Amino acid sequence: MQEQDKVDSLQDVISTPIKDVEYITNWLITKGSEVGWSLVSAIFTLVIGLWLAGKLKKLIEKRMIARNVDLSIRTFLIPIINIVLKMIVIMFVVSRLGLDASGLIAALGGAGLAIGLALQGSLSNFAAGILIIIFKPFKVGDYIVSQGNEGTVESISLLNTVIATAKGQVVTLPNANLFNNPIVNYSVKEYRRLDVNIGISYNDDFDKAREVLLGVLEKNELVDDTQSKTVEILEFAASSVNLAVRCYVKNSDYWTAYWQLYKAVKYALDENNISIPYPHTEMIIKNDSNSTTIPFENKD
C-alpha cells in the first residue's frame, strides 16, 4: 500500500509542472494570437486611415476651389484639417490595440497645455492668424507694407505670413506682429495714385511747365482719364521750385507707369528748354572799401 502511495505521489510531482507548462503555453498562444491580430488590425487601420485622410483632405480642398473659397482661407484651413484627420486616425489605431483612448486624450491634453505654456508666442501668432483670416486686412496676392517690409503676400500659414519683395527676396513675418502693427494694403483699391516730384528753375515759366507736364499725363495710356491729374507747386526749395505731378493708375500698372512717366517728364522738359536744377550754392562777393579783406557769404 505504501508503494502505491509513493507511485501516486511521484506521478503528481511530474504531472503538475507539465500541466502548468501546458496552461502557460495555451495562454501565450491565445493572448499572442489576440495581440498579433490587434497589431495587424492596427497597422491595417493606420495605413487605410492615412490614405483615406489624404483623399478626404484633397476632396475638401477641391470643394473649396470649386466654391471659390479665398486662397488665404484655403492655405490656412487645409493644414488644420489635415492635422485633425490624422488625429482621428490615431484614435482609431489606439482603440484597435485595445488601449484606453480617453487616457491618451488626457495625456495629449496635458502635453498640449505644457507645450502651450512654453510656446505662448507661437499661440499668439496662431490666434493672430485666425484673426487675419476672419477680418481680412490682407489676403494672398495683395501688395502690403508693414514694419519696413513690403511685397506681395504669397501665403498665410498657422504662425507666419510670407511675402515676396520686388527684389526677389522672401520675407517671413510673424502673424502677431503683422496684426498688431499698421498695415498698408495697396491692393484693396483698384487704382493707386502715382506721384512724380520734379523741380524746375526759379527762372522758368511755371504755366509753360504745367502745360508740358499735363501733356505728358494725357499722352500716357496707363494714366486713368476718369480721375484727376494734378500739376501744382509743391514747395519752394533751396535751388528749385518743386512741382507735384500726380495721377491715378491701376495697381497692376503702377511700376510700369512709374518708369514711363519719369522718363517722359525728363524728355518733355528738355525738349521745351525747361531746366531741372541740381543743388548748388550761390556765392556773393561784397566789396568793402574800408576793409583790406574780401569776405565771402554763402547763400543757399
TrEMBL record:
Database matches in Gene3D superfamilies: 1.10.287.1260, 2.30.30.60, 3.30.70.100
GO cellular component: plasma membrane
Keyword list, A-Z: Cell membrane, Membrane, Transmembrane, Transmembrane helix
UniProt domain Mechanosensitive ion channel MscS C-terminal: residue ranges: 195-276
Membrane topology summary: Multi-pass membrane protein
MF terms in GO: mechanosensitive monoatomic ion channel activity
Membrane spanning stretches: 35-54, 75-99, 105-135
Localisation per UniProt entry: Cell membrane
Keyword Transmembrane belongs to the record: yes
Pfam families xrefs: MS_channel_2nd, MS_channel_3rd
Ranges of residues in domain Mechanosensitive ion channel MscS: 122-187
Family assignment from sequence similarity: Belongs to the MscS (TC 1.A.23) family.
Protein name: Mechanosensitive ion channel protein
Organism per entry: Empedobacter brevis NBRC 14943 = ATCC 43319
